[in-house]
Amino acid sequence: MDVDSNWATDWVRRSADAVAAHRADLTALDRAIGDGDHGENLHRGYQAALAALDGLPDDSTPADALMLVATTLISNVGGAAGPLYGTAFLKASGAAQGLDELGPADVVAILTAARDGIVLRGKAQHGEKTMVDAWTPAVDAAAAAAESGSDVRDVLEAAASAAEQGAADTEPLVARKGRASYLGERSAGHRDPGAESSALVLRAAAEAAADAAERRDT
Amino acid sequence: MKKLINAPEDVVAESMAGFAAAHADLVRVVPEPLYVVRRDAPVAGKVGLVSGGGSGHEPLHAGYVGFGMLDAAVPGAVFTSPTPDRILAATQAVDGGAGVLHIVKNYTGDVLNFETAADLAAANGIEVRSVVTDDDVAVKDSLYTAGRRGTGGTVLVERIAGAAAERGDDLAQVAAIAEGVNADARSMGVALTPCIVPHSGEPSFTLAEDEMEFGIGIHGEPGRETLPLEPADRVVDRLLDAILPDLPYERGDRVLLMANGMGGTPLSELYIVYRRAAERLAEEGIEVARSLVGDQITALEMQGCALTLLRLDDERIELWDAPVQTASLRWGR
């Protein structure tokens, strides 16, 4: 099965719910190694995105929905997370351009474009204790799943699981980028809040696809 | 948490509304998207200066909007950089046809948002140059970090580049002066207590009664190390021991010495700090030619201070002394 713009908008809704539910946890993670506002900022952005969805025309494509998320997050989140998430969805939207339905390869292309956008904007590499540490394993796992013939649902499930593992794997790392890098060795022992929120957002994408598949099956 | 606020989400907007009312002779505050602009902006033919960043560092940056300094300031949420759409709006509001200089503190969020805004401004036909300030010596190695943070030196860049723009320098000249000031400025700070961000209601870090956090930034983020609290003179010596060899500042140099409060330290203590710093610089054969003491770039109600040194030459002294008329720096006019 492929996914369409309903999946994209459902992804946004589920992301907003997940961020709202984990807002305090994300902020607590950020307080440990950053400035303690990640949950608050992302929540503000996703609530704005949720509200903006109401204005999205019925005939919108997945690319339109992703573009709406991008611009809303850029202008509402602030901090480093705004431009990073915003650029991710901007590039994802570009990768989805012209498509009404997204197959496994398209989903991999979207995730890859998002990850590349984050790397480009933040100039961070894998292993520097940032969002990239969730996104890169997610992209790799999604690509491997698509390669082996998985459907969209399983591709996104693989991405979400790898992102969760990637976020957990940031705990022992010493930060090299962002506010946490000023802590040096003292940043070790704390999970990166950006990697954690990335895992939440990718889990939301997988859940939206699983739900779409169930709706189609029944 | 005890704070004189109404609701955490209204802190920045209400504070800026009060700022607008108090300083209506100097500035206008545009509420949506939020930025503060000098009353007479845009000034035709003058390079526009825009800075901004998270709120909670007052008087930075809104307090420095006016004649001879910034043309606009863009306050974000508390300790959170403003978004690119706001920065773009401020940039457009101050463009008098001679281009705009963005003065950006080296913090990842500020850099990313200003970078995005500069791209948008360029797409709208405005020539933008950016100077990223990174005067904080506490952060050692940019190979392993996001690089040195922009702190107290930012105020000096805003003032001196602002004076250069006011006398009619072009964008390249103003940018070069700003870069030169940043290159010759060094800062180091110490916190005695953490601060509380209104939204979270929690202290940004914990310090025992007999401890100090040495080498802090301006957000209450932890610094270089936690040390036992010492008398003021010893703390000042530690700060200068970190700052002086870094540029280095040497015998015969003329400097501006800034003793900055982090928001919760009384002026009397800042003068105790200044007293020892000036004494120590005299011992080192460094001439303090200009000085600035007070809360310039703060971290809410954090107790502590930071010292900033800037190497001066005749031109920088002339620009520093030139008329300035803002809410928080005002002389000669």
Automatic annotation (TrEMBL), chain A:
<keyword id="KW-0808">Transferase</keyword>
<protein>
    <submittedName>
        <fullName>Dihydroxyacetone kinase subunit L</fullName>
    </submittedName>
</protein>
<dbReference type="GO" id="GO:0004371">
    <property type="term" value="F:glycerone kinase activity"/>
</dbReference>
<feature type="domain" description="DhaL">
    <location>
        <begin position="6"/>
        <end position="207"/>
    </location>
</feature>
<dbReference type="InterPro" id="IPR036117">
    <property type="entry name" value="DhaL_dom_sf"/>
</dbReference>
<dbReference type="InterPro" id="IPR050861">
    <property type="entry name" value="Dihydroxyacetone_Kinase"/>
</dbReference>
<dbReference type="GO" id="GO:0005829">
    <property type="term" value="C:cytosol"/>
</dbReference>
<dbReference type="InterPro" id="IPR012737">
    <property type="entry name" value="DhaK_L_YcgS"/>
</dbReference>
<dbReference type="GO" id="GO:0019563">
    <property type="term" value="P:glycerol catabolic process"/>
</dbReference>
<dbReference type="Pfam" id="PF02734">
    <property type="entry name" value="Dak2"/>
</dbReference>
<keyword id="KW-0418">Kinase</keyword>
<dbReference type="InterPro" id="IPR004007">
    <property type="entry name" value="DhaL_dom"/>
</dbReference>
From TrEMBL, chain B:
<dbReference type="GO" id="GO:0019563">
    <property type="term" value="P:glycerol catabolic process"/>
</dbReference>
<keyword id="KW-0418">Kinase</keyword>
<keyword id="KW-0808">Transferase</keyword>
<dbReference type="InterPro" id="IPR004006">
    <property type="entry name" value="DhaK_dom"/>
</dbReference>
<dbReference type="GO" id="GO:0047324">
    <property type="term" value="F:phosphoenolpyruvate-glycerone phosphotransferase activity"/>
</dbReference>
<protein>
    <recommendedName>
        <fullName>phosphoenolpyruvate--glycerone phosphotransferase</fullName>
        <ecNumber>2.7.1.121</ecNumber>
    </recommendedName>
</protein>
<keyword id="KW-0319">Glycerol metabolism</keyword>
<comment type="subunit">
    <text>Homodimer. The dihydroxyacetone kinase complex is composed of a homodimer of DhaM, a homodimer of DhaK and the subunit DhaL.</text>
</comment>
<dbReference type="InterPro" id="IPR012736">
    <property type="entry name" value="DhaK_1"/>
</dbReference>
<dbReference type="InterPro" id="IPR050861">
    <property type="entry name" value="Dihydroxyacetone_Kinase"/>
</dbReference>
<dbReference type="Pfam" id="PF02733">
    <property type="entry name" value="Dak1"/>
</dbReference>
<comment type="pathway">
    <text>Polyol metabolism; glycerol degradation.</text>
</comment>
<dbReference type="GO" id="GO:0005829">
    <property type="term" value="C:cytosol"/>
</dbReference>
<dbReference type="GO" id="GO:0004371">
    <property type="term" value="F:glycerone kinase activity"/>
</dbReference>
<feature type="domain" description="DhaK">
    <location>
        <begin position="7"/>
        <end position="331"/>
    </location>
</feature>
